[in-house]
Amino acid sequence: MNGKLIILSAPSGSGKTTIVKSLLAKIPGLSFSISATSRSKRENETDGKDYYFISAENFRQKIKQNEFIEWEEVYPERFYGTLKTEVERLWDNGQHVVFDIDVQGGINLKKKFGERALALFISVSDIKILEQRLRNRSTETEESLKARLVKAEEEMSYAKEFDKIIINDKLEQAVEECYRSVKEFI
Ligand code: 5GP
Fold first, then answer.
1. At what angle are helices 16-26 and 171-185 packed, to 10 degrees?
2. In the chain, where are the structural domains located?
3. What's the CATH superfamily of 5-185?
4. Ligand 1: residues whose CB is within 6 Å?
5. How much distance in Å is there from the Cα of 29 to the middle of ligand 1?
6. Tens digits of residue pLDDT in 117-126
7. pLDDT digits 0-9 by tens, 101-113
């Protein structure tokens, strides 16, 4: 049981999901921690691969039964959390575990696991870049896009709590920087 934790947190639209996918493809021995969420599935997503999609009611039940390592109500009525069983399963398979989680969740995991965790904060040099990316993605309504931007500004202020800040203005460079940090850490 000496699996490590690689945490990638970022404001929505910073490109962390893309970076996570590149890291998983490039580094053997890393596995993705599939979170549970009560938000609805997007068209390009698969249940049990991108997330475990469950109802808010089921999510609340799991909170009560202490099944999460960490969880957050990232947006109102939209819960996201890391199941203990998920991480244990991956560690038991001899894997290091990669987390794509929100900023508060990232900070909580880092506090809990200390030296066993590498916490990377993915950011951009200007919040306008985030807005543009979210618009291009077209997965959000105007309302949820605004909510994400308000939250992003607040989240930027927590960057200093992470082991390393990586600026993702150019994707290849950001991937390379993450790759080097992770290789060094594991
Ligand atoms: P999205 O709805 O865009 O997939 O994710 C919204 C936010 O929730 C992202 O910042 C994502 O990283 C975060 N998130 C995903 N899974 C978890 C989790 O298990 N715990 C926490 N705290 N945040 C998560």
1. 50
2. 5-185
3. P-loop containing nucleotide triphosphate hydrolases (3.40.50.300)
4. 12, 35, 39, 70, 72, 74, 80-82, 100-102, 105
5. 23
6. 999 999 988 8
7. 999 999 999 999 9
